[in-house]
Design a protein that fits this description.
The protein has a domain of about 50 residues. It is about 10% helix and about 25% strand. It contains one helix and five strands, in the order ββββαβ. The strands form two sheets. Strands 3-5-4 form a three-stranded mixed beta sheet, covered by helices on one side. Strands 1-2 form a two-stranded antiparallel sheet. The N and C termini lie far apart (about 35 Å).
């Protein structure tokens, strides 16, 4: 999947999309600093149960593109 940043830059978001397509989908999302690889043992089990499995990676993590603007690469949390 590709999205367009507000400055026009295209950012590719890596995802795993396993079918059957007509099956009920289930979306697997991970947290920060992980990636969809953590679902490698769960995805086959969900497929065996007949589900359509989608697992995406957050922007900047794993095989997804990294933003080019420096201010998007860092965030701060209140302490």
């Amino acid at each position: 999947m590709t999205i367009t940043d507000d400055d026009g830059t295209e950012i590719r978001i890596h995802s795993i999309d396993e079918r059957p397509r007509n099956a009920e989908p289930i979306l697997l999302m991970h947290g920060n600093t992980s990636w969809s690889y953590i679902y490698r043992k769960i995805i086959p089990l969900l497929l065996q149960s007949g589900r359509h499995v989608i697992a995406g990676d957050l922007v900047e993590l794993s095989r997804s593109n990294k933003p080019t603007r420096e201010n998007l690469l860092h965030f701060s949390a209140p302490h």
